Amino acid sequence: MSDGHLAQAGRGRGAVKLNKGHADIAINWAGGLHHAKKSEASGFCYANDIVLAILELLKQHKRVLYIDIDIHHGDGVEEAFYTTDRVLTVSFHKFGDYFPGTGDVKDVGVNAGKYYSVNFPLKDGMDDASYESIFKPVVGKIMQVYQPGAIVLQCGADSLCGDRLGCFNLSIKGHAECVKFVLAQKLPTLILGGGGYTIRNVRRASARTCAAAPARLSATRDNPCGWRRQA
């Protein structure tokens, strides 16, 4: 099975299981292809599994929050929901002379979606303390005001220190701290992979994220990505 098929299959399983209440947390490391657009492929992404997952979640939830901690702006997801208030997208990313060149703080959505696109452009060298001082207050306030029914979290590992294409100084611990903060909101959450061009970083970040999930893995043959919290 190709990576694209894995991403789509994982997207379908994860979102459906969350909707049916069969899992509180679903993880698909093959997903997170946030650059793909409706009419074109972009940035190693040719099918936007995130958009499809959010559309699935919207069948059950009035509002969905999308959070992107990949070093690149989540342009494909933002574009897909730029005119609606049912999805709020928030992206923390490197901005300037850097792919895809979008994600200005002034890009806030249009029509019904105005102010439902949140961009936090960042400079090189963001470390754990700096990132956390931004991430937690911003996401915390969004949770308070927007009150989503479900969350989709794109965990691109290219925001980690030492990534071949990245320029941030996040540690694996700092990266996982963002995941822990999101999971502490105790909402149905779909966790996805994304960028990451230093393989050892990707492996370690994935393992740390799984360890951060306050849940047990329901590891059945037909449910490889469903998690349930301990009672």
How would you characterize this protein structure?
The protein has 6 helices and 8 strands; from the N terminus they run αβαβαββαβαβαββ. It has helices at residues 3-20, 49-57, 75-80, 128-146, 172-183, 199-212, and strands spanning 25-28, 64-68, 87-94, 117-122, 150-154, 189-192, 216-217, 226-228. Strands 4-3-2-5-6-1-8-7 form an 8-stranded mixed beta sheet, sandwiched between helices. A hairpin with an 8-residue loop joins strand 7 and strand 8. Helix 1 (3-20) packs parallel to helix 2 (49-57), helix 4 packs parallel to helix 5 (172-183) and helix 5 runs parallel beside helix 6.
SSE blueprint and pairings:
Blueprint: H1 3-20, E1 25-28, H2 49-57, E2 64-68, H3 75-80, E3 87-94, E4 117-122, H4 128-146, E5 150-154, H5 172-183, E6 189-192, H6 199-212, E7 216-217, E8 226-228
Parallel strand pairs: 1-6, 2-3, 2-5, 3-4, 5-6
Antiparallel strand pairs: 1-8, 7-8
What is the residue-mean pLDDT, rounded to a whole number?
85
The 3D shape can be described as: globular
| Helical/strand content category | alpha/beta
Q: What fraction, in percent, of the residue positions are helical?
A: 25-40%
Q: Report the biggest beta sheet as strand number plus sense, adding barrel if it closes.
A: 8 strands, mixed
Give the beta-strand count: 8
Low-confidence stretches: 1-11, 216-227
Gap between N and C termini? 36 Å
The topology string of helices and strands comes to: HEHEHEEHEHEHEE
Write out the strand line-up for the largest beta sheet, numbering strands in chain order: 4-3-2-5-6-1-8-7
Q: What is the radius of gyration computed over CA atoms, rounded to a whole number of angstroms? A: 16 Å
How much β-strand is present in the residues?
A: 15-25%
Total of helices: 6
